[in-house]
Amino acid sequence: MLKIFCALVIALGLAGNSFAQDLNFNAESYEVKEINNIAFRAYENICYVSRPLEPEYQVMSIYIPAEYFQDGGTVNNYSAANAPIFMPNGVGGYMPGRIAAPGLGRDGKANAALNALARGYVVAAPAIRGRTLKHGKAPALIVDYKAAVRYLRYIKRLNLLPAGDTEKIISNGTSAGGALSALLGATGNAAEYKKYLDEIGAADERDDIFAAMAYCPITDLDHADMAYEWIFNGINDYHQAKMLRPMNGGGNNRPENAPLDTKAAALMSDVQIAASNKLKAMYPDYLNSLNLKDAQGNFLTLNANGEGSFKEFIKNIYIAAAQGALDADKSALNNIKCFGVDGDRVVSMDLKAYAEWATRLKAAPAFDALDNSSGENNEFGTESINAQHFTAFAYDNSLVDAGIADEAIIKLLNPLNFIGHDGVNTAKHWRIRHGVLDRDTVIAVPAVLALKLLNNNCAVDFKSPWGYGHAGDYDLNELFDWIDSICK
Ligand code: DHB
């Protein structure tokens, strides 16, 4: 009887395991490629989890400069042993993200991954699940990015990774991908993700990283509606079409899958205008609850009217950007009314005039739409529910019969919930960019992220580049100079 029981247990155990695949890396399975005279080995489409739920997306490619396969080969003073690992994600619009492979960008120039190889970095580029897949809703995207980091550490420990220092992993992404990069950087080893990592058979390794680069991160989604109205309240026309932009479409450099930005304006409804007024009034309490301080240790706050030191801090970021533009070109601010200039100095800024100049992209609420129709509503759906609210405000004021996402899952998508917490290893080095003309989210959102990191002893390089809207990877020389400066 006992024998039969044991045989049954073993058989069941084997059957259970047979659903899982091993975490493999075959160092002999690569192609040699060359783009723009940059030669590299490409190990492509490697599954980074042992129980993939979306096998087409839970794969990663690893690209290694060819020099590291010659004895003692170096590039940019890096070697196979100490080359940093650049880890870009191709996520946009919270959609599934494809592998961000080395190649030429829309502008015909070397993209970030190809630049990284030229500079001697190893590139590890995972595809990542997104909101339109059956198993792709929150928190799938961050679980996959973490699993890819764990996979790299796993094959490194087995001495299979041909080159690259897994203690020097730098993430990169734009917009939803920037939010994802920030989330990876903020949440290293946080226990809250474990059950999701176990579900897909992620390697039992650490998932903290060295540095994070976030271009225009669409983050802090559960508070961004208030921040948006703090800046755009009073402007009642907006410039977004109801449809998503077509893949690869558009004549500007907005990321794929970003909402379609229109020239023609639509007018917000009375309900949306009322929502704007309420959300604006709610922002100061939220902002003050964060207890943020500037680099000199002064508290940054807002009074009930939305005025105060935090507003001055935000204005000074734009003033610094405008000063740079004026220094480069004396006529740069000629037709721009929101900056006050005295001689060759930018001395003041009017945030209301800025909002008129930049124009509102999204109706209120910008992210958690009252009709439950935004991409973010879809991101917070479940396997069986297409879309849900994720703020109490939109849920309470919903125009449709829609539920609200699980509080624990909303928490898993916000980096602010993890920075400085016990048992979490937040990346030490950060570079965050939000273009002066970006209105997919407002600058207060990445500014709060930057301040929270600064207040928790991270090194943060945060700027608003002049002349840029919602875009990323536009300053690759500076990006890689920054990475060199923190790695060397
Ligand atoms: C992106 C842009 C948005 O405006 C948004 O709400 C979500 C994502 C993007 O470009 O990824």
Give your account of this protein's structure.
Mean pLDDT is 94; it is low at 5-18 and 247-251. The chain has helices at residues 2-18, 112-118, 140-157, 176-186, 194-199, 221-232, 270-289, 309-328, 351-358, 375-379, 392-396, 407-412, 444-454, 476-487, and strands at residues 31-35, 38-47, 59-65, 74-75, 78-79, 84-88, 122-126, 165-174, 211-215, 237-244, 259-267, 339-342, 345-349, 429-433, 459-463. With 488 residues, the protein is an alpha/beta fold. The radius of gyration is 23 Å and the shape is globular. Strands 1-2-3-7-6-8-9-14-15 form a nine-stranded mixed β-sheet, sandwiched between helices. The protein has a two-stranded antiparallel sheet with strand order 4-5. The protein folds into three domains: 2-218 and 476-487, Rossmann fold (3-Layer(aba) Sandwich); 223-366, no CATH class; 371-413, no CATH class. Helix 6 (221-232) crosses helix 7. 32% of the residues lie in helices and 18% in strands. The chain contains 14 helices and 15 strands. 3,4-dihydroxybenzoic acid binds next to loops. Residues 92-94, 175-176, 218, 255, 257-259, 375, 440 line the site of 3,4-dihydroxybenzoic acid.
Known CATH architecture of the largest domain: 3-Layer(aba) Sandwich
The number of distinct structural domains comes to 3
Largest sheet: 9 strands, mixed
| Head-to-tail CA distance between termini | 65 Å
User: What is the H-and-E element order?
Assistant: HEEEEEEHEHEHHEHEEHHEEHHHHEHEH
| Average pLDDT metric | 94
The helix content is 25-40%
CATH topology name of the largest domain, in short, is: Rossmann fold
**CATH homologous superfamily grouping of the largest domain:** Alpha/Beta hydrolase fold, catalytic domain
**Count of beta strands:** 15
What would you call the shape? globular
CATH class of the largest domain: Alpha Beta
| Order of strands across the main sheet | 1-2-3-7-6-8-9-14-15
The rounded Rg comes to 23 Å
Bound molecules: 3,4-dihydroxybenzoic acid
Return residue spans where pLDDT drops below 50 for at least 5 consecutive residues.
Answer: 5-18, 247-251
Secondary-structure class: alpha/beta
Q: How many alpha or pi helices?
A: 14
Oligomeric composition of the shown chains:
single chain
Strand content: 15-25%
